[in-house]
Design a protein that fits this description.
Elements lengths: L4 E7 L10 E5 L6 E7 L6 H11 L10 H10 L1 H5 L9 H24 L6 H21 L5 H17 L22 H10 L1 H14 L5 E2 L2 E2 L2 H20 L15 E5 L3 H11 L5 E5 L16 E5 L7 E6 L6 H12 L10 E5 L3 E6 L16 H10 L6 E6 L5 H8 L5 E8 L10 H10 L2 E5 L1
Parallel strand pairs: 1-3, 6-14, 9-10, 9-12, 12-13, 13-14
Antiparallel strand pairs: 2-3, 4-5, 7-8, 10-11
Amino acid sequence: MRLVVCTHNKISKHDLSNEALAYVKRDENAGACYKIYTSEFCSGHSFFMHEIGHILLHHLSFEDINNEQIYDKLMGAWKSFSKYISFTQKDEDRTMFSLIVLLKNYAMDMEVNSKVFDKDEEEFLIEDMNQAEYKRLSYISENRLAGHADAYRRLCRYAYAKRDNPKVTIVTPVFAENYGFSRGLSWQQYIDLIILAPDLVMPKICEKLRNEEGKFIEKTSKIPAEVIKKAAENQDMFIAEALSSGDGKSSKEGYGKTRCFTIRKLGPDVRTFITERAIDKFEDSRTDYLYLANRGKTDNILRGKSIEHSDYTQGNVYIIVDTSGSVRRERLAQLLDLFSEIKNLVGQQSKVIFWDSDLQKIDSLSQGISEIPCGCGTEIAPAIRYTASRFCSENDKIFIISDYYDFLENWLAEIRKLRCSCYGICWTNNRKKVTCLDDEAFNKFCREVETLFVEL
């Protein structure tokens, strides 16, 4: 056994409020001396044992070596990896080496967590990590540090989900079996398995990139911002491709009636989505035997002509606009302009209903929108109930414009009572998946209500 000298250092809450909860560094001047850093948020021994595992398994000896060998292996499967990651041609090599750093971090964590912790001990690691992350998020939110709004949203989502599932977690450690791999392998073997199954591993890595806001740090190396930025977006596009290539049946992970989960900018695609759903194309083809007779025909033979005729009356469109302030008013105005373009093609009683946690005002679509109010809070279910009780008939349409950060199961309960069709337009961004209180409720909602996602 070789001698290992290790010191344990506590880092203040403020210093680690936006960084890793724990990490280990090797002394540059003494190869067998290590420093383990854990945050004041950490309790229990799981963090310390995890970092000790990195030392005992010699992971810090591989900081710069083997990258070339991994690079050669990754090149053979790069097409399967690159669809999850955005890069320019000149930065492709830098992006590949950054991805190697990330994959090594995952593979090494898989080895540590499967060799240092027995299967029945994993729950202690999960509990310690979640307690520490909960304290960290609470500290950020209460002290209004950088990222406090997102920290508060994550705490709300956690509290809401925990009501239905006491075992729900804020963060999840990297366990090999969660990726379909065997326990107890070396990190090099895990790298090989990851490269052999990119479509199995990368979606979960992208999900963690979203949840952890891109703060994947190994020693002093960070993944480039553009890689983080596109990982989630391209993952969503990949899901959409998988759904469109299937048999059309929704699955537990699928999005059902959400036809395009790709983020769209305001433009032709959004205009088409609105027009095709707001305007009914109802035609009645009938034969008019007096058509020619009325045009000077004098013989006794009438030749009928088939003409298109419709007695159908276009329904009204009711647009519920979430004005909680998450979207700039000028962006909302641009979207509402697309509805104004079709005001003469829909019912003249069409209305725009501005709502945050209560009714703010109602404008007539045909007469134009005078001003977009700015409110606070979000509670859209009462808006759906209000619109249905005051205005809607069978031929009408409801569009809900929101960021979906609300109790979507309450929306769905009201939508199921409607006599008319309902569609969603969700404001999101191009860095991460739409933020909602409950992912399960979000998936259920999208399976039943056709939704288009529009870039903030």
